[in-house]
Amino acid sequence: GDSIITVQLTEEDKVEDDVVFYLVFTGSTVQHCTSTRKINPGSLETISPGHDCCETVKVALCASREGHPVLVVAEDSFQFVQDEAYDAAQFLATCAGNQQALNFTRFLDRSRPPAADVDFLDEKVALAFRHLKLPAEWNVLGADQNLTENIPRETLMHFAVRLGLLRLTWFLLQQPGGRGALSIHNNEGATPVSLALERGYQKLHQLLTEEEAREPDSWSTLSHTVHSGDYSVKHHRGLDVYMLTAEA
């Protein structure tokens, strides 16, 4: 999800300015309807939806004009594929609270990937996390909520902060258990907050310690989602397009 899709119109489809185009993606359990932005008379832009599973869906380009019926201009198929970011997000989501798995992730820290690779990893995994269907009871600290803050343990928040993953840290902070993870020490006595300070991640430290810290600038061009029952509406600020998602 959140990738840019470009639609090229044929000569006969280039019509007056009062015609509004939108795309409808129909999957097995979810349907998405996205508005579009006109780049020029022959090209449209929109954002790909974050789908709930990997499958091939039907996509229809529709045209709407006041006082006229909705017209289906073209139809095609669109494939959602499972990539490494999706696999990584699923792995991290399922290993929340699993000490063996979380300790295993620490080997990534020893390799110290370049800043550009970290930024790419942060963006892709955080976006994949946002599109995962997390169980209602999912918690950053794992399934066992009886553990007290005094028990040293590794958390998903330690993982995100150790690698300097700003977007993923922001996402985890909004989830159940996210704030509680900030005061938990690992076996070395480090909290996510002290890790950020020790590593010189100033933006991360600010994000974790300021009471009313705003979302990172890196999210500013991405989408904001509002949920209501079986529906959600997403606004992508960069392109100023909207997406309505409904369970079919």
From TrEMBL:
Entry-linked Gene3D superfamilies: Ankyrin repeat-containing domain
Biological processes, Gene Ontology terms: adrenergic receptor signaling pathway; positive regulation of canonical NF-kappaB signal transduction; regulation of Rho protein signal transduction
Transmembrane segments annotated in the record for this chain: none
Chain coiled-coil ranges: none
One Gene Ontology term, aspect cellular component: actin cytoskeleton
MF terms (GO), sorted A to Z: MAP-kinase scaffold activity
InterPro entries for this protein: Ankyrin_rpt-contain_sf, Rho_GEF
Name of the featured protein: AKP13 protein
Organism field: Calyptomena viridis (Lesser green broadbill)
Phylogenetic lineage: Eukaryota, Metazoa, Chordata, Craniata, Vertebrata
Gene name for this UniProt entry: Akap13_1
